[in-house]
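Quick illustration, no need to memorize.
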Amino acid sequence: MNNQVILYIARIFAIFVSLPVHEFAHGYSANLLGDKTAKSEGRLSLNPLRHLDLIGTAAILFCGFGWAKPVPVNANNFSKPKRDMALVALAGPVSNLILALIGICLLKINLILLPVLTSGAYLPSHEFITVFTYFSIININLAVFNLIPIPPLDGSRLVTYFIPQPYYNLLMRYEIFGAVLVMALLFLGVLDWPMKIAGEGFLSFLDFITQPIDMLGGLAH
């Protein structure tokens, strides 16, 4: 199968798995911290149709990263609004890194353990390897993109936890302009290098923590 076709299959897979999981993580963490808004509006769900955004979905298809419709969160329902908003924001990128970790584990198991268990009779599928490679990279890209510290992205919620309340309120008031700024920076390529460095860092970390699988494969050989 053509690699470009496999790439789009992986991106479609990410759209229907990664984006819903990302938004569910936001809603679920908010629910745990006392805000039931997402649950009451039917967004505490893994159903992709409840979360997909047309432009964000197209961005994943053609760029490899994007966004879904933000899960509604009412900070007034939190006992510590700034802290809890930061935790809710962090839940989304963390969910993508967990999915990337799962993808990397599946790759390593497919490449190392399964051929050993079947005495060499099993040949890893090129398509399977390629899909989960792309899947892992796309999830890392989603995590990195959402950690950009510009509103309305999740990273801004983490940064604003550390700034004084008056500046926090001011920043949130002009949040809509942040979305325009992010799009402009992406279009101009300003974020390409920082996102590449951050993505490679996360990939190296996930590869490092899955080294036990490599070790088991080496022992089996």
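The mean pLDDT is 86.
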